[in-house]
Amino acid sequence: MTGTESWTTDQVVRLTGVSSRTLRHYDQVGLLRPAGTGPGGRRIYRRPELQRLQHVLVLRELGLGLPDIAAVVDGVGDPSSEVAALTAHHARLLAEIGRLRRLADSVARSIEEREGGDPMSADEMFAAFRNDPYAAEARERWGDQAVAVQEQVATWGRDEAVSAQAEMSAVHRRLAALMAAGEPVDAPEVGDAVAAHHAWVGRFWTPGREAYTGLGAMYVDDPRFTATIDGYGEGLSVYLRDAIAVYANANLE
Amino acid sequence: MTGTESWTTDQVVRLTGVSSRTLRHYDQVGLLRPAGTGPGGRRIYRRPELQRLQHVLVLRELGLGLPDIAAVVDGVGDPSSEVAALTAHHARLLAEIGRLRRLADSVARSIEEREGGDPMSADEMFAAFRNDPYAAEARERWGDQAVAVQEQVATWGRDEAVSAQAEMSAVHRRLAALMAAGEPVDAPEVGDAVAAHHAWVGRFWTPGREAYTGLGAMYVDDPRFTATIDGYGEGLSVYLRDAIAVYANANLE
DNA sequence: ACTTGCGGTTGACGTCGCGTCAACTCCTAC
DNA sequence: GTAGGAGTTGACGCGACGTCAACCGCAAGT
């Protein structure tokens, strides 16, 4: 054991993974001052600074802004203020999610308008979910979730159905374009598109790796899904299934 | 009719609602050049500029960035590029929504941890949804939606239940704090908190004005909900119901 | 004619969290 | 002695404007 433990910038960088620029920035804005400086003006950090940094990083991970983080970290000994800050932050996040959902909805409808015509009515679109000769099979193969999704979709009003349909249409068209362009299913752009698909599915439920892969399989195995999806491009259902498999393996747990 | 129609900056401001600063900014970045300038360097806009501005504003409404808008608006006569831009934008929105959802989830769990203890287990929390002696009544009063929600909740895995529970807990605690602080249900801060509640409910379904108001009523009428919600503060269910009513009237259709 | 006031004009800064040069210093290894 | 590697302090850039600041033109009131 050396008498006084201390770390220089590069050591902190290796320990924590933050960039040296970030450390300097935190010093500059007063969020994390080093314990002192060594030869050549090198920053020296000790235990309390590392602990403070750890706290900062946790809060940063949660998406708080630096001023908020500073307020929390400086108000040590007052755990209630931390909860209050996180709660307020959480509320902001939910509000932002709501805003983006409405925005995505508008954009999708807008795309539908510009595409003109009647690319597929809401009725057609969700026929695959509604009157379901496959309900029993679905329950067997994908569990109660699929059935619950069907039930939920069945209760939608016009507006929600149109909105969901418009969004799905946009996602499928994007995928169809990528397929037509010859992109392999493991191309990063395809990954992005599948991420959008996964987010869209999030309207119903949030599948994990296995469930999502299963959903992809269903697209190929259930002719109602196959028909709907291939309406956007011949073979899209198979392409999508494979892309989903790749995505799920890489990004879900 | 005057021979040449033209509008000055302040007239355009009144017509369109954009700020004069924004018009100058659009001029500066080349997104919307005025047709010419009058005495004192005043900007003069004519019909084509107003049409272009309208197009710009539509796209801005949809959340596109100015460079993207410029690309679309300049590529007149090529409607496919517009659809492509919107589709890409839509995908970005969905990705962002997914990111924020995961973030909100983390934040909520984090709050739960800090709150310590076991403020209410996931089991307790959703007991109100599961084994339901009230199912028949619910179906009668709030239609098939409530039942579909129950079915969906019943299928959740541990992770999703914990996540949803943590988020709900955060929302309720925020509301309880506002109630304890004596905020009236029509205070703007309470409106924000209810917006967060509405966004949270969006995990299950997106209620309109009537449905949301009905949900609020259920919080008071159904003792299982009342008990759960009042666990965060005596009388919170009534407070929340009233706050929801105010919010729904003001913000939903 | 002079003042007041409104509304336009052109800069220029601030926002948020750093990434990314640029120019320089310091220490170490060869 | 010199090259190399890593640190240091600026300073700019990002996105879409909001917000002064300083100045000018024009019309109405005194």
From TrEMBL, chains A, B:
Keyword Repressor: yes
SUPFAM superfamilies, alphabetized: Antibiotic binding domain of TipA-like multidrug resistance regulators, Putative DNA-binding domain
Pfam families registered for this protein in UniProt: MerR_1, TipAS
HTH merR-type domain: residues covered: 6-75
Keywords annotated in UniProt: DNA-binding, Repressor, Transcription, Transcription regulation
InterPro entries tied to this protein: DNA-bd_dom_put_sf, MerR-type_HTH_dom, MerR_fam, TipA-like_antibiotic-bd, TipAS_dom
Name of this protein: MerR family transcriptional regulator
Naturally occurring in which organism (per UniProt): Pseudonocardia nematodicida
